[in-house]
Design goal:
Layout: H1 17-25, H2 37-48, H3 50-53, E1 65-73, E2 76-84, H4 88-91, E3 94-100, H5 110-124, E4 127-131, H6 143-156, H7 158-162, E5 165-175, H8 177-191, E6 201-204, H9 215-219, H10 230-238, E7 271-278, H11 282-294, E8 299-308, H12 311-314, H13 319-339
Parallel strand pairs: 3-4, 3-5, 5-6, 6-7, 7-8
Antiparallel strand pairs: 1-2, 2-4
Helix pairs in contact: 5-13, 6-8
Length: 340
Protein backbone atom coordinates (compact mmCIF):
# COMPACT_ATOMS: atom_id res chain seq x y z
CA UNK A 1 0.00 0.00 0.00
CA UNK A 2 1.53 3.34 -1.02
CA UNK A 3 2.40 5.67 1.84
CA UNK A 4 0.79 9.10 1.89
CA UNK A 5 0.38 11.82 4.48
CA UNK A 6 -2.82 11.46 6.49
CA UNK A 7 -4.38 14.71 7.72
CA UNK A 8 -6.48 14.85 10.86
CA UNK A 9 -9.22 16.68 8.93
CA UNK A 10 -10.72 15.82 5.56
CA UNK A 11 -11.98 18.05 2.78
CA UNK A 12 -14.98 18.22 0.49
CA UNK A 13 -15.42 19.49 -3.05
CA UNK A 14 -18.76 19.31 -4.86
CA UNK A 15 -21.22 16.54 -4.12
CA UNK A 16 -21.20 13.95 -6.92
CA UNK A 17 -24.22 14.57 -9.19
CA UNK A 18 -25.45 10.97 -8.97
CA UNK A 19 -25.34 11.05 -5.15
CA UNK A 20 -27.10 14.41 -5.10
CA UNK A 21 -29.78 12.97 -7.37
CA UNK A 22 -30.20 9.90 -5.17
CA UNK A 23 -30.61 11.99 -2.03
CA UNK A 24 -33.14 14.26 -3.75
CA UNK A 25 -35.14 11.24 -4.93
CA UNK A 26 -35.21 9.78 -1.40
CA UNK A 27 -35.72 12.79 0.89
CA UNK A 28 -37.14 10.66 3.72
CA UNK A 29 -34.24 8.21 3.71
CA UNK A 30 -32.12 9.45 6.58
CA UNK A 31 -29.96 7.73 9.14
CA UNK A 32 -30.49 9.31 12.54
CA UNK A 33 -33.35 11.52 11.41
CA UNK A 34 -36.42 12.52 13.35
CA UNK A 35 -38.28 9.28 12.64
CA UNK A 36 -38.55 6.49 15.20
CA UNK A 37 -35.73 4.05 14.59
CA UNK A 38 -38.24 1.28 13.83
CA UNK A 39 -39.49 3.34 10.89
CA UNK A 40 -35.89 3.93 9.80
CA UNK A 41 -35.30 0.18 9.82
CA UNK A 42 -38.29 -0.36 7.52
CA UNK A 43 -37.44 2.53 5.18
CA UNK A 44 -33.84 1.41 4.72
CA UNK A 45 -34.94 -2.11 3.86
CA UNK A 46 -37.47 -0.78 1.35
CA UNK A 47 -34.81 1.23 -0.50
CA UNK A 48 -31.51 -0.61 -0.05
CA UNK A 49 -32.74 -4.21 0.32
CA UNK A 50 -31.32 -6.54 -2.33
CA UNK A 51 -34.86 -7.66 -3.12
CA UNK A 52 -35.88 -4.05 -3.88
CA UNK A 53 -33.31 -3.39 -6.61
CA UNK A 54 -34.82 -5.33 -9.52
CA UNK A 55 -38.34 -3.87 -9.03
CA UNK A 56 -36.70 -0.42 -9.12
CA UNK A 57 -35.06 -1.27 -12.45
CA UNK A 58 -31.61 -1.74 -10.93
CA UNK A 59 -29.31 -4.69 -11.47
CA UNK A 60 -27.66 -6.30 -8.41
CA UNK A 61 -23.94 -6.89 -8.74
CA UNK A 62 -23.13 -10.32 -10.16
CA UNK A 63 -21.45 -12.92 -7.97
CA UNK A 64 -20.37 -16.54 -8.11
CA UNK A 65 -22.74 -17.83 -5.46
CA UNK A 66 -24.33 -16.99 -2.11
CA UNK A 67 -24.32 -19.32 0.89
CA UNK A 68 -26.44 -18.93 4.02
CA UNK A 69 -25.16 -20.31 7.33
CA UNK A 70 -25.28 -19.75 11.08
CA UNK A 71 -22.85 -19.41 13.96
CA UNK A 72 -23.55 -20.69 17.47
CA UNK A 73 -22.67 -17.62 19.53
CA UNK A 74 -22.69 -16.84 23.22
CA UNK A 75 -25.90 -14.80 22.81
CA UNK A 76 -27.60 -17.25 20.43
CA UNK A 77 -27.38 -18.20 16.77
CA UNK A 78 -25.91 -15.56 14.45
CA UNK A 79 -27.03 -15.76 10.81
CA UNK A 80 -24.23 -15.18 8.29
CA UNK A 81 -24.34 -14.78 4.51
CA UNK A 82 -21.26 -15.66 2.45
CA UNK A 83 -20.60 -14.18 -1.00
CA UNK A 84 -18.24 -16.12 -3.25
CA UNK A 85 -16.57 -14.51 -6.26
CA UNK A 86 -16.71 -16.38 -9.55
CA UNK A 87 -13.03 -17.23 -9.34
CA UNK A 88 -13.61 -19.34 -6.24
CA UNK A 89 -14.47 -22.29 -8.51
CA UNK A 90 -10.88 -22.39 -9.79
CA UNK A 91 -9.20 -21.38 -6.52
CA UNK A 92 -11.02 -23.63 -4.04
CA UNK A 93 -9.82 -21.49 -1.11
CA UNK A 94 -9.79 -17.72 -0.68
CA UNK A 95 -9.25 -15.02 1.96
CA UNK A 96 -12.37 -13.90 3.83
CA UNK A 97 -13.66 -10.50 4.91
CA UNK A 98 -16.02 -10.64 7.90
CA UNK A 99 -18.25 -7.59 7.56
CA UNK A 100 -20.28 -5.79 10.24
CA UNK A 101 -22.69 -3.39 8.55
CA UNK A 102 -23.38 0.17 9.59
CA UNK A 103 -26.63 1.72 10.78
CA UNK A 104 -25.87 3.34 14.12
CA UNK A 105 -25.86 -0.04 15.91
CA UNK A 106 -29.65 0.22 15.60
CA UNK A 107 -30.64 0.05 11.92
CA UNK A 108 -29.71 -2.26 9.07
CA UNK A 109 -29.46 -5.85 7.89
CA UNK A 110 -27.32 -7.86 5.51
CA UNK A 111 -30.09 -7.50 2.90
CA UNK A 112 -29.31 -3.78 2.66
CA UNK A 113 -25.58 -4.34 2.26
CA UNK A 114 -25.62 -7.41 0.04
CA UNK A 115 -25.02 -5.51 -3.19
CA UNK A 116 -21.94 -3.77 -1.76
CA UNK A 117 -20.62 -7.03 -0.35
CA UNK A 118 -21.04 -8.64 -3.77
CA UNK A 119 -18.97 -5.84 -5.32
CA UNK A 120 -16.21 -6.29 -2.74
CA UNK A 121 -16.15 -10.07 -3.10
CA UNK A 122 -15.92 -10.02 -6.88
CA UNK A 123 -13.51 -7.09 -7.06
CA UNK A 124 -11.14 -8.24 -4.32
CA UNK A 125 -11.32 -12.00 -4.95
CA UNK A 126 -12.30 -12.67 -1.35
CA UNK A 127 -15.24 -14.34 0.34
CA UNK A 128 -17.23 -11.60 2.04
CA UNK A 129 -19.25 -12.65 5.09
CA UNK A 130 -22.18 -10.43 6.03
CA UNK A 131 -23.14 -10.83 9.67
CA UNK A 132 -26.71 -10.43 10.95
CA UNK A 133 -25.62 -9.31 14.39
CA UNK A 134 -28.06 -8.35 17.14
CA UNK A 135 -29.05 -4.70 17.09
CA UNK A 136 -29.35 -2.12 19.83
CA UNK A 137 -31.28 -1.06 21.84
CA UNK A 138 -32.70 -4.55 22.28
CA UNK A 139 -29.13 -5.83 22.67
CA UNK A 140 -26.74 -3.15 23.98
CA UNK A 141 -22.94 -3.04 24.07
CA UNK A 142 -20.92 -5.27 24.28
CA UNK A 143 -23.24 -7.87 22.69
CA UNK A 144 -22.12 -6.91 19.19
CA UNK A 145 -18.40 -7.24 19.98
CA UNK A 146 -19.03 -10.63 21.55
CA UNK A 147 -20.79 -11.75 18.38
CA UNK A 148 -18.00 -10.34 16.20
CA UNK A 149 -15.48 -12.41 18.14
CA UNK A 150 -17.70 -15.50 17.89
CA UNK A 151 -17.97 -15.16 14.11
CA UNK A 152 -14.21 -14.66 13.82
CA UNK A 153 -13.58 -17.83 15.80
CA UNK A 154 -16.08 -19.75 13.66
CA UNK A 155 -14.48 -18.49 10.44
CA UNK A 156 -11.07 -19.62 11.68
CA UNK A 157 -12.35 -23.06 12.67
CA UNK A 158 -12.94 -26.19 10.61
CA UNK A 159 -16.30 -24.66 9.67
CA UNK A 160 -14.59 -21.85 7.79
CA UNK A 161 -12.11 -24.25 6.20
CA UNK A 162 -15.00 -26.47 5.09
CA UNK A 163 -16.51 -23.46 3.34
CA UNK A 164 -13.33 -22.54 1.49
CA UNK A 165 -11.84 -19.89 3.80
CA UNK A 166 -8.06 -19.51 4.01
CA UNK A 167 -7.65 -19.30 7.82
CA UNK A 168 -4.39 -17.37 7.54
CA UNK A 169 -6.06 -14.50 5.64
CA UNK A 170 -9.17 -13.43 7.51
CA UNK A 171 -9.94 -9.72 7.54
CA UNK A 172 -12.47 -7.82 9.62
CA UNK A 173 -14.32 -4.83 8.24
CA UNK A 174 -17.33 -2.60 8.46
CA UNK A 175 -18.76 0.82 7.67
CA UNK A 176 -19.87 3.58 10.04
CA UNK A 177 -20.92 1.86 13.29
CA UNK A 178 -19.59 -1.37 11.80
CA UNK A 179 -16.25 0.36 11.32
CA UNK A 180 -16.36 1.40 14.96
CA UNK A 181 -17.01 -2.18 16.04
CA UNK A 182 -14.23 -3.47 13.79
CA UNK A 183 -11.72 -1.05 15.30
CA UNK A 184 -12.98 -1.86 18.80
CA UNK A 185 -12.75 -5.62 18.24
CA UNK A 186 -9.15 -5.40 17.01
CA UNK A 187 -8.28 -3.31 20.06
CA UNK A 188 -10.04 -5.71 22.44
CA UNK A 189 -8.37 -8.76 20.93
CA UNK A 190 -4.97 -7.08 21.22
CA UNK A 191 -5.65 -6.09 24.83
CA UNK A 192 -6.66 -9.67 25.65
CA UNK A 193 -3.57 -11.12 24.00
CA UNK A 194 -5.57 -13.09 21.45
CA UNK A 195 -3.42 -14.38 18.60
CA UNK A 196 -3.43 -14.21 15.71
CA UNK A 197 -5.13 -10.87 15.24
CA UNK A 198 -7.20 -10.35 12.08
CA UNK A 199 -4.98 -10.03 9.01
CA UNK A 200 -6.27 -6.48 8.46
CA UNK A 201 -9.05 -4.10 9.45
CA UNK A 202 -11.13 -2.47 6.69
CA UNK A 203 -12.84 0.70 7.95
CA UNK A 204 -15.33 2.50 5.70
CA UNK A 205 -16.24 5.97 7.01
CA UNK A 206 -15.91 4.69 10.60
CA UNK A 207 -17.44 6.29 13.65
CA UNK A 208 -14.11 6.20 15.46
CA UNK A 209 -15.51 8.47 18.17
CA UNK A 210 -18.40 10.88 18.63
CA UNK A 211 -17.83 13.78 16.19
CA UNK A 212 -19.00 16.68 18.34
CA UNK A 213 -15.92 18.91 17.88
CA UNK A 214 -14.98 18.61 14.20
CA UNK A 215 -15.52 20.86 11.16
CA UNK A 216 -17.26 17.97 9.40
CA UNK A 217 -19.87 17.82 12.15
CA UNK A 218 -20.77 21.43 11.36
CA UNK A 219 -20.55 21.63 7.57
CA UNK A 220 -22.14 18.19 7.08
CA UNK A 221 -24.54 18.41 10.00
CA UNK A 222 -27.69 17.69 8.01
CA UNK A 223 -28.89 16.89 4.51
CA UNK A 224 -26.35 14.28 3.43
CA UNK A 225 -28.11 11.06 4.53
CA UNK A 226 -26.40 10.64 7.92
CA UNK A 227 -27.78 13.23 10.33
CA UNK A 228 -24.97 14.28 12.63
CA UNK A 229 -27.15 15.06 15.64
CA UNK A 230 -28.77 11.65 15.31
CA UNK A 231 -25.41 10.00 16.03
CA UNK A 232 -25.84 10.88 19.70
CA UNK A 233 -29.19 9.08 19.75
CA UNK A 234 -27.54 5.98 18.31
CA UNK A 235 -24.87 6.11 21.02
CA UNK A 236 -27.60 6.42 23.63
CA UNK A 237 -29.25 3.22 22.35
CA UNK A 238 -25.96 1.34 22.03
CA UNK A 239 -24.50 2.03 25.47
CA UNK A 240 -25.60 -0.24 28.28
CA UNK A 241 -27.07 1.09 31.52
CA UNK A 242 -28.69 -0.40 34.61
CA UNK A 243 -30.67 -2.54 35.04
CA UNK A 244 -29.81 -4.18 31.68
CA UNK A 245 -26.11 -4.05 32.51
CA UNK A 246 -23.38 -1.84 33.94
CA UNK A 247 -23.29 1.78 32.84
CA UNK A 248 -20.94 2.25 29.88
CA UNK A 249 -19.58 5.77 29.29
CA UNK A 250 -19.15 6.98 25.69
CA UNK A 251 -15.44 7.39 26.43
CA UNK A 252 -15.01 3.61 26.91
CA UNK A 253 -12.00 2.43 24.89
CA UNK A 254 -14.12 -0.11 23.00
CA UNK A 255 -16.81 2.49 22.24
CA UNK A 256 -14.55 5.39 21.21
CA UNK A 257 -11.23 3.91 20.06
CA UNK A 258 -10.61 7.10 18.12
CA UNK A 259 -10.40 9.05 21.38
CA UNK A 260 -7.37 7.07 22.51
CA UNK A 261 -3.89 8.59 22.16
CA UNK A 262 -1.52 7.03 19.60
CA UNK A 263 0.51 5.57 22.49
CA UNK A 264 -2.36 3.15 23.15
CA UNK A 265 -2.94 2.13 19.52
CA UNK A 266 0.24 0.24 18.67
CA UNK A 267 0.40 -3.41 17.65
CA UNK A 268 -2.88 -3.45 15.73
CA UNK A 269 -3.59 -5.12 12.36
CA UNK A 270 -2.86 -3.21 9.15
CA UNK A 271 -5.71 -0.81 8.43
CA UNK A 272 -7.41 0.54 5.32
CA UNK A 273 -9.49 3.61 6.15
CA UNK A 274 -11.92 5.22 3.69
CA UNK A 275 -13.52 8.61 4.27
CA UNK A 276 -15.78 10.90 2.25
CA UNK A 277 -16.19 14.65 2.05
CA UNK A 278 -19.92 14.99 2.73
CA UNK A 279 -19.98 13.00 5.95
CA UNK A 280 -20.19 14.19 9.56
CA UNK A 281 -17.79 11.32 10.42
CA UNK A 282 -15.20 12.44 7.86
CA UNK A 283 -12.78 14.05 10.30
CA UNK A 284 -12.92 11.42 13.05
CA UNK A 285 -12.15 8.79 10.41
CA UNK A 286 -9.13 10.68 9.07
CA UNK A 287 -8.01 11.44 12.62
CA UNK A 288 -8.12 7.75 13.54
CA UNK A 289 -6.16 6.78 10.44
CA UNK A 290 -3.51 9.37 11.34
CA UNK A 291 -3.31 8.09 14.92
CA UNK A 292 -2.93 4.49 13.75
CA UNK A 293 -0.08 5.54 11.45
CA UNK A 294 1.53 7.57 14.23
CA UNK A 295 1.34 4.50 16.49
CA UNK A 296 3.44 2.56 14.00
CA UNK A 297 0.73 0.53 12.27
CA UNK A 298 0.50 0.08 8.52
CA UNK A 299 -2.30 2.29 7.21
CA UNK A 300 -3.77 3.01 3.79
CA UNK A 301 -6.09 6.01 3.68
CA UNK A 302 -8.37 6.84 0.76
CA UNK A 303 -10.54 9.94 0.69
CA UNK A 304 -13.44 10.63 -1.67
CA UNK A 305 -14.12 14.38 -1.37
CA UNK A 306 -17.27 14.29 -3.55
CA UNK A 307 -19.10 11.40 -1.86
CA UNK A 308 -21.45 11.12 1.10
CA UNK A 309 -21.70 8.69 3.98
CA UNK A 310 -23.14 5.35 2.84
CA UNK A 311 -21.57 5.10 -0.61
CA UNK A 312 -21.30 1.30 -0.31
CA UNK A 313 -25.10 1.13 -0.36
CA UNK A 314 -25.56 3.83 -2.99
CA UNK A 315 -23.61 2.04 -5.74
CA UNK A 316 -26.70 0.88 -7.71
CA UNK A 317 -27.75 4.53 -8.13
CA UNK A 318 -24.33 6.20 -8.42
CA UNK A 319 -21.44 5.52 -10.79
CA UNK A 320 -19.16 7.55 -8.51
CA UNK A 321 -20.15 5.43 -5.51
CA UNK A 322 -19.62 2.27 -7.57
CA UNK A 323 -16.14 3.46 -8.52
CA UNK A 324 -15.35 4.09 -4.85
CA UNK A 325 -16.47 0.56 -4.02
CA UNK A 326 -14.12 -0.65 -6.73
CA UNK A 327 -11.26 1.22 -5.06
CA UNK A 328 -12.12 -0.38 -1.71
CA UNK A 329 -12.01 -3.78 -3.42
CA UNK A 330 -8.66 -2.97 -5.00
CA UNK A 331 -7.13 -2.09 -1.63
CA UNK A 332 -8.57 -5.24 -0.03
CA UNK A 333 -7.11 -7.30 -2.88
CA UNK A 334 -3.67 -5.74 -2.23
CA UNK A 335 -3.93 -6.57 1.45
CA UNK A 336 -4.91 -10.15 0.63
CA UNK A 337 -1.87 -10.55 -1.59
CA UNK A 338 0.40 -9.07 1.03
CA UNK A 339 -1.00 -11.42 3.66
CA UNK A 340 -0.42 -14.45 1.44
Amino acid sequence: MPEQDIPTRGTRTTLAPSVKCFLEQHPQLRLGGDEDFHAERRRHLEVFGIHALAPAGLMPASIGRVHFDGVRGRHGTIPVRMFYPRRFAEKGKLPALIYFHGGGYTVGSVDEFENGLRILAEGADVITIGVEYRLAPEFPFPTQLDEYEDVLAWTRSHEGARLGVDPSRIFCGGDSAGGNMTAALCLRLRDEGVQPLPAAQILLYPEARLPFDTPAATENNSGYYLECNGIFGFADRYLSRPPAGPATPPSHRYVSPGALPPEELGGLPPAAVFTCGFDPLRDVGAEYAAKLRQAGNKVAWRHFPDLAHGFLQMAPWSSEAEEACGEVARVVRELARAAG
